[in-house]
Design a protein that fits this description.
Structural class: mainly alpha
Low-confidence stretches: none
Distance between the termini: 37 Å
Shape: extended
Mean pLDDT: 84
Radius of gyration: 20 Å
Strand content: under 5%
Number of strands: 0
Length: 120
C-alpha cells in the first residue's frame, strides 16, 4: 500500500475533517472572523499583541492530559473552552477517539535504524 492509497483510516480522517472540523471552524469564523488571515490586513495598524502575562511559570512547561486518551480529551476541551475557540471543545472526545484509531505501535527489532546516530 503506497502513501497515496486511500484506506479505512483515511476515510475516518476525511469524515472527521468534513463532518466535524469544518463546521466547527465555520462557526468559529462566523463568531470571531477569519481564523488565519490569508493576506495582509491593511486596516490593521499592528500585528503586535500586548500579553497579559509576561513571565513564564512552571505550568507553562508542563503538558496536561498525557496520561490517557480520556485525559487528553479533557485537557484539550478545557484549553479550548478557556481560550478563544470554544467551538472545538465539543470535538475533543471525537478527536481523542480518532487518535486512538490511528495509533500505530511499532515492533522493536534488534537492528538500529541507519538514520539514528548511536552513541556508546
Amino acid at each position: 500500500m503506497s502513501s497515496t492509497d486511500d484506506g479505512p483510516r483515511d476515510d475516518a480522517v476525511r469524515r472527521f475533517f468534513e463532518k466535524r472540523l469544518l463546521p466547527a471552524a465555520a462557526a468559529a469564523s462566523r463568531r470571531r472572523g477569519e481564523l488565519f488571515p490569508r493576506a495582509p490586513q491593511p486596516e490593521c495598524e499592528s500585528y503586535y499583541r500586548e500579553r497579559g502575562r509576561r513571565v513564564m511559570e512552571r505550568r507553562d512547561f508542563e503538558l496536561q492530559g498525557l496520561e490517557s486518551p480520556g485525559a487528553l480529551a479533557q485537557a484539550a476541551a478545557r484549553m479550548w473552552r478557556e481560550g478563544d475557540l470554544p467551538e472545538l471543545a465539543d470535538l475533543a472526545d471525537a478527536l481523542a477517539s480518532l487518535a486512538g484509531e490511528l495509533r500505530e505501535v511499532e515492533e522493536e527489532g534488534g537492528e538500529v535504524s541507519p538514520f539514528i546516530y548511536v552513541m556508546f
